[in-house]
Amino acid sequence: MAGPLAGLVVADFTQLAQGPFATQMMGDLGAEIVKIEPVKGDWMRHWSMANLYIEGEGGSFLSFNRNKRSIGIDLKHPRGREVALRLVDRADVVIENFRPGVMERLGLGYETLAERNPRIIYCASSGWGQSGPYVTRPGQDLLVQAVAGVGYLNGNADDPPRGVGVGIADFTAGFHIVYGVLAALYARDRTGRGQRVDVNLLNSILNLHVQEFTLYLNGAGLPERSRSDIPGAYLGAPYGFYRTADDYIAIAMNPINKLAALVGVEGYEECAESQVMEGRDQVRADFQEGFLRKTTQEWLEILLAEDIWCAPVNDYAAVERDPQVLENEMIVEWEHPKAGPVRGVGIPVKFSDTPGEIRRPAPLLGEHAEEILREFAGYGDEEIRELQAAGAVNQ
């Protein structure tokens, strides 16, 4: 069965992470993703986290680009631009994450595309927004984390600011791209008209702070990190990770007196609330001493039986073995024409009637150029050879 977005055609001009993550999600759900790359390829074909390349294919690129077809186009070449315009004529959605103004300079801005195709949904995703004092700055995940105040929510009070260990701004923006595009498609069903959708990293990551920033704006004061690894500046003890006799255990919100009795910590018999803010570092130290008496598995058996909110603290090897991760089919494998078997994260949302699926691995650069030109742009064989000879599209 086809996925829920089957029949939707997306002209994907995106590179790096935020845009490709969004279009991969849409491809997983059945959309036809036409990845329009520079003739030398997406920037991430030539850079990979951990410097991991599998038979020459970058691990990061493979992570973000399954379920797509690729064509390399020189958008500065007049005939290349014409190819792109003909592809957009057939598309439902255009997604790009260039710096503001780039698509306009290429002759591919929203006004131009909407004049040719009034039903087009055009989503622009940038680092900082389409206007303002930061508009010409590079918009990258860590830089946006820094401006959005993320660094002062993580770590301990005496530590320097600390970034989040995954590209949280990129990925959150990816989700905002998808929900913005789907909302615009729903509106188009009612109005018959497309529209422009704007997403940026800064807005996306601030939206994750909806609770913390509201607290600050309404009198909670500046967030103050604890000195004892409590993982939230506005959270009290005993919330957090604790060392056990052999590993670590995570403890969430629980009645403190109940938890203390089970762990064998004295002095909290009358404390029925689920968190203590005043003196929270000492509360955490008291509970830490108690948790050292047993192994993680022993604590899980004791605490889960009493409906205490707790969990093991997995490293990646443990995540790979975790029975719930396996039950949810969140580790999958597919075949790549060069890299061979590739393992990765599965499709997170499940549908009863129109399930998503991995139909294609990440494409080789320009792997589908000729079929894209025939199928979506209406070029014949002789015209395709002329375009390739002129350097407007890749071989």
Automatic annotation (TrEMBL):
Pfam families: CoA_transf_3. Keywords: Transferase. GO terms for molecular function: CoA-transferase activity. InterPro entries: CoA-transferase_III_domain, CoA-Trfase_fam_III, CoA-Trfase_III_dom3_sf, CoA-Trfase_III_dom_1_sf. SUPFAM superfamilies: CoA-transferase family III (CaiB/BaiF) (SSF89796). This is L-carnitine dehydratase/bile acid-inducible protein F.
